[in-house]
Design a protein that fits this description.
- The chain has a single domain, classed as Hypothetical protein apc22750. Chain B (Translation Initiation Factor IF3), CATH 3.30.110.
- It is built from one helix and six strands; from the N terminus they run E-E-E-E-H-E-E.
- Strands 1-5-6-2 form a four-stranded mixed beta sheet. Strands 3-4 form a two-stranded antiparallel sheet.
- A hairpin with a 2-residue loop joins strand 3 and strand 4.
- The longest helix has 18 residues.
- The radius of gyration is 13 Å and the shape is elongated.
- It starts with 7 loop residues before the first strand and ends with a strand.
Length: 83
């Protein structure tokens, strides 16, 4: 199985020649107890989860459709020939 890190994050303009496979929503805890987790750490974990979902759907490229909010973010999964 491919490594999730092999799935690239792209912009909408980059996926014009790609096949859209579906969407995924990643969710992680954005706070522990009273403490908010680092935005960078949360975003990194959301991306890693989305990359794993892309691999399981046969995709190799992601495009975000939302910004991370409350520990959740949505992505579109694509299969691109040049990736």
């Amino acid at each position: 199985m491919e490594n999730a890190a092999s799935v690239s994050l792209a912009q909408n303009a980059d996926v014009e020649n790609c096949e859209r496979l579906g969407t995924t929503t990643s969710t992680v805890r954005d706070q522990v107890g009273w403490f908010n987790r680092s935005d960078e750490r949360v975003a990194s974990e959301l991306l890693t989860l989305a990359q794993s979902s892309a691999i399981s759907m046969g995709g190799n490229t992601l495009v975000t459709t939302t910004d991370p909010e409350n520990g959740s973010q949505q992505f579109v999964i694509y299969s691109c020939p040049n990736n």
